[in-house]
Every structure is written in structure tokens, then in C-alpha cells.
Design a protein that fits this description.
By secondary structure, the chain is an alpha/beta fold. It folds into two domains: 31-178, Rossmann fold; 184-331, 3-Layer(aba) Sandwich (Rossmann fold), CATH 3.40.50.10490. It has 15 helices and eleven strands. A six-stranded mixed sheet has the order 2-3-1-4-5-6. A five-stranded parallel sheet has the order 8-7-9-10-11, with helices on both faces. Helix 5 (55-66) packs antiparallel against helix 12 (220-234). The protein is globular, with a radius of gyration of 20 Å.
Amino acid sequence: MTSAIDTACASQTWREIHAQPVIWEDWAARLPVQNLRSWITQQAPQEVWFCGAGTSAYIGDIIAAGLPLCGPIRFRSVPSTDLVARPHHYLAGRRDTVLVNFGRSGDSAETLGTLQAVSALCPDMPMLNITCNSSSALAQASSGHAVILPEACHDTGFAMTSSFTTMLLTALAVFDTARNGPKMMTRLAGAAEEALSQSAKHILAGPTPKRVVFVGGGPMTYVARESALKVMELSAGQIPALWDSTLGFRHGPKSFVTDDTMIHVILSTDPMARAYDLDLVAELRNQFPNAKTVTIGRDADFEIGTLGVDVWDCALSVLPAQLAAVLWSARLGMNIDNPFAGKSTLSRVVSGVRLHPVEVGEWQ
């Protein structure tokens, strides 16, 4: 009988997770950071919006929370799922904004809807389109400046793993002008190798939880969100997962915790934020002694060799959840690479969304 670890290792998703260090290091050597920074400067934006759907939207959330400014430029996360539903609210009369689109496939309904809305309401808005699919609508949009990521991070599994982290690091390399982006990516690649090895051992030694929680502060809040999503996706909802901020968790969401819950607190390297993280860990272990509360980060249960910059460390902090989601999925007997096979409810690229026409001049 095939063991859970054998099933996990045979999946495409497992291979894509473990490919991340090599992808990051290779891409760091080829990413045209200075050219992209120069292009942004030429646009003279007052704001940069980061747009995407689902996991791709969390990239913008992480950047806006962890890197709110670049000199005079303010960063804002505007999920394409919001923009497409209310395009006039966001785009009417908009000036001095660069819109950054993220998309693994580059062909999702919300991606197409964003391109249509911008074309109708702000045809001169400069766009930076970051995608893993060179043949996609996003890559080939005539009004956008495209960045095509390596084919290796165009995940074929259902869950976004290497695509998520590589799009995140690409944007950070371009917009965190205070740091050498390629050097940071290379350092993260080295740290990721050890993080993946240690995390896999930790997860294999533990049980499959009945329900899970992920919390973190600042940009780690959205790593928590992505982590929870990975578990729910790859378990096809059999493992309920909740996410919240470290301080927000006490305000009602803590009611989710039962004796069968595994709680993950993603530790910040910011001294004050970390103090609040550790306060919550102590509280949870005292109040819920039968639940399992674990930490992720530096000097943690899941030891991650962080760089000490939270917004960059997000790419490392999501790795334990990626691995756990695969291993727990295997233990549940799921099809890891396509957990919803035969159900016609969720698909790798979201479908079934009917796009409504954007009327120029319509406003309320």
C-alpha cells in the first residue's frame, strides 16, 4: 500500500513546491530589475495598485501591508474581484496610477474583466502585467508592459505555490527600491532549502488536524490567509481553516478553536509585532491546552531562516503550509493535483464568471 509521503512526493504540487529555491535563484539572475524600475519612474505615478484574484490578490495585500511606500509612491491592494464588480468606483477619473496585474494563468475571468474595464474607462493607464503564462491575454495585452515569469513556476497543480511566491518576489524586487532585489531573492533561495527540509520532518511527525488556524501580524496576516486557503483547497474543504491577524484573532474568531484545532502563529521579526505574537502563543497554550499551538519563523517550532525583513520573509513563511496541505491531502486520500476532480465546483483556472459590459460614463 502506498504511504502518504510516497503519494505526496509523486504529486506535481510537491515537486512544484520544492522547485521554488531553484526558480527564485535562477530568476534573480535574469529579472531586469533596473529596466522595470526605470519604466515605473517614467510613469511618475502617485499610486501603484496591485491587482489579482484569490491567491494573486494576496500578493498585493502583503506588499501594501509590508511595503506601503516607495518614496512618494503609495502602494494599494485592489483585488480584481473588487475592481471588476465596481469598475467605475475605482477607475472613473483615475490619474497618476500604475496598475500591476498578477495572474498565474493570465486568462482568468477577472483578469479579462480588469483589462476590459481599464480599456473602457482608463485606456491610458499604464499597466505592469506579471504572469506565468506567455500565451495568456495578460501577457499579450497591447496596453500592458509584460513580465513573463519562468515556465517552471507556471504551476500545473490546482494550488498556486511557486507561482505565488515568484510573482511576490518579482514585485518586491522591482518596488522595494531600498534593497537589492536579486540579492534578496538569492538569499531567500538558500534559506528555503533548509526550511522545506525541516518543515517536512515536522509535519510528518505530527497528526492530521481536524481544523486549523493561521495568524500573523502585518504582511504575515496575508501569509496566514494564503496558508489557510492552501489547506482548504488541497483538502477540498475537509479541513476547515481560519485566518486572522495576531491581535484580531481574539475579537471573536478565537471561538473557532476546539481541542482538535492546530493553531499556527507566524512570527514577525519586528520586535513589537513579535512581542504581540508571542503573547498570543502563551495565551492560546494556556487557554487551549488540548489544542496544538505551533510557531513559524525564527526561533520557532517551524524554524525558518528569515532575512529579518517581514515582507520578504513572507515567501519563506508560507512554505510550511504548502507542504502541510499536500501531506494532509495525501493522508485524506485526495487527488492532490486536482482535489475537485469530478465535482465541477472548483477548477484550476476560475471559470463560469459572466462578465458584464462596462458602460463609459456610467457612474454612481
